[in-house]
Amino acid sequence: MYPKILKGLAAACVLALTSCSSYKTTQVNPSTTFSNSTTVPKTSGSAILDAQGKPITLQGTNLGNWLVPEGYMFKTGQVSSPTKINELFTEMIGPDSTAAFWQKYLDRYITHDDIKYLKRIGCNHIRLPFHYKLFTNEEYMGTRNAGFKYFDRVLDWCRQENLYVLLDMHCAPGGQTGDNIDDSAGYPWLYFSQSSQDEMSRIWVSIAQRYKNDPIIIGYDVVNEPFAHYFLKEIPDYNHRLFLLYKRMVADIRKADSKHAIFLNGSVWAGDFGVFEEILDDNVVYEFHKYWFDVNQEAIQKYVDFRDKHNVPIYIGETGENTDEWIKQFTPLLNKNQIHWAYWPYKKMDNTRGIMNFNQPEHYKLITDYAAADRSNFEKIRNNMPDRAKVQQALNGFLEQCQYKNCFQNKGYIEGLGLKVE
Question: CB under 8 Å, gap of 24 or more: what pairs does 134-141 form?
């Protein structure tokens, strides 16, 4: 038994990933490069103006699964949040190899080549989901306090390609949704935790201070998809708590940055605009998300009505995850109604419901099967553990396949978006 275990561990160590060399380029320091006189994108009535003051219709995609890993895109099923995925990988290949995997993953999953491609096919912005832990000393994805490292990297690429960036706090302190997507404890504690709200404010203020004059930033997406539908009975109370949180975040961000637009999600998976008790600021974009519905005017009319009533911009920050035919029907409806949009996500493994696809590597099913296995106690973890060397091989393969050079386009999906197929 022990020789078998040692042999497996040795093989895993031989295959273990080393962190790749640090990203090297001449990067712009946005806090010193741009001045208070630099113009940035902003809203004007129901329009969004670019940095030159011209109306722009946002059309783009989300860089989902990069800074916030998701189980359905890693094909780990019920192991669906970043914390749970990290725990799964650590069980299989150990902490050092897991940290090394994440470090290479962060360098490979999204690169300058991906940004160049998105610009070439016709996107004019990206929405960048991020986890608050990237701005803390808590270990996250094999690193600590690395948020500005990855922000500055992708912003530098986007600046070179003239592609606007929306910064989206996808996982907030305490959890804003109460489900896997916010990497929470299964409840939206953010609205009941003063320390969590203080931490959220600290992070947003630090981001706003750094990028307050950066013209490539299209805005700050304060928090993603507040509240899941599991909490509908409490929505009157929860909506008011969320409104008060928004009121504070807008005020705190404005102390650091008076110029950039602020994006505010509706509640209940971003679909309920009833949370907006009043208009908090004259430079706010109101955001909704919507998936899996019949395409017709009725599906979006309440958001159009809100825009027209208050003379404010509206933006669908997430949609898609559907067939090519559905995309071909919905995108023209958004364009007809002059709704800004970003489809979810840009790429994922072995799936055609996105712009870009890549193949599942050899032995990856071992990971999927282990994620679905009984891991409720240590004996069951040991008994159900897959071959560690093959798991490491599968993860190495993932890192190879996910790179832009090995991805391939979902042509029908891209055509449905009205973008260019290469």
Answer: 134/67, 135/203, 135/206, 135/207, 136/199, 139/99, 140/82, 141/67, 141/69, 141/82, 141/86, 141/102, 141/103, 141/105, 141/106
Helices 194-211 and 147-161: angle between axes, nearest 10 degrees: 40
Model confidence over 409-419: pLDDT tens digits? Answer: 999 999 999 99
More confident residue, 65 or 1: 65
And the tokens for 129?
Answer: 């989901």
| Interacting residues of 324 by C-beta distance below 8 A, sequence separation 6+ | 352, 410, 412, 413, 415, 416
Angle at 159 between CA 22 and CA 223, to 5 degrees: 85
Orientation angle between helical segments 388-401 and 82-93, nearest 10 degrees: 130
Average pLDDT, the chain: 93
What 3-state DSSP class applies to 70?
A: coil
One-letter amino acid identity for 216? Answer: I
Q: At what angle do helices 147-161 and 112-121 cross, to 10 degrees?
A: 40
DSSP 313-358: -EEEEE-B-S-HHHHHHHHHHHHHTT-EEEEB-SEEET-SSSSEEE
pLDDT at 27: 58
Q: How does DSSP classify residue 16? A: P
31: helix, coil or strand?
A: helix
Q: How many CB atoms lie within 10 A of CB 36?
A: 8
Pair of tokens at residue 6: 């040692």
User: Given this model, what pLDDT does residue 8 score?
Assistant: 42
In whole angstroms, give the CA distance from residue 132 to residue 360: 29
Rounded Cα distance, 399 and 296, in Å: 40
pLDDT tens digit string along 240-250? 999 999 999 99
